[in-house]
Amino acid sequence: MKEEYREFDAMVRNRLERHFNAPAQPKTTMMAKKVAIEAAIPGWQPISWYEERGVTGLPPVTFEDQANAIVECVKAGASIIHTHPRDPETGMTAHMHPVGSPESRHAYCLMEVMDRAYKEIDFVCAHHTWWGKPDKGAQADFISQTKLLLELGKAKGLGNWYVQSVLIMTEGNFDVGHAIFDVESIQEGVKWMEANGVKPLVEIECFAIPRVKQHLIDTGLLKEPFWAVIQEGKHSDDRAFGGDPWTQLEIITSLGLARQALGEGTFLGIAPAGRNWLTMATMALLGGAEMIRVGIEDQFYLYPHKDDISQRASDTTAMVVNLAKALGREVATPQDVRERIGIKLTK
Fold first, then answer.
1. Is the pTM value of this prediction over 0.90?
2. What is the rounded radius of gyration, in angstroms, for the C-alpha atoms of the chain?
């Protein structure tokens, strides 16, 4: 700098420090933690839904196509995979299989898909393994399928690869024939998982946050670090149904209530669904959520103001990964997730 301008520069700097002293402002840490992206594929939508909209290849049906969709999402930035495997014989999700035992068919299809994907990439699985107990009025059974997958994994030398974590549902369900997630079955499932090296992922509706604290944390059944994901816009949750700005405020409220009830150390995520999923995902990134769920299971439209839909399984994964990076948030790897929530592979 030329000497004759130094006095002027000093004057400008003095004014800057008095009116806008950015260097003196403390850094905010809300977005400092890594964010994990969970991809939910291949979804449960009927094939005709995509056919009517001119989309081919979605949802993936063959075992190879389902595995390729997982690989595609992981390569796009996902570290967690949630899948309802499709049965190639029917095109439907395996747990809807009309013939034989749906439990064993689901396990077979899940392993076929995961084995193919595992040849190329690593990921943390977070699957649905619950079933209704006909002898107990459809009370949910969180143990039998989880135990089966754990035993099958051990027999193949893969340990807990198929069930690194498992979903615990807390929704109120009113459909006839659907499993009922009551306190007894949830507590029974969490206790068994914690004792057998399977990490419970508690999927919570905003209205059930206090119940998780009361029945799982205060009782000591759920072990730290807790992993919880708030369901927004699905699973009997209608609070995210409205438009701007209410869905944005809903995310802020849900994150705040969950942190207050479950503790700041909780690995807390948001699973947004419906028209406004992208709005909610953006607010969750800004609000410091450590996990965002994307994928073709619950996100039918790409944008809240358009009818565009995914052409590839990884479209929403790439969108949120790019958004996270634009906001300066580091995207977590599978190993980052395991270290954060204490999952130990036994294979």
1. yes
2. 22
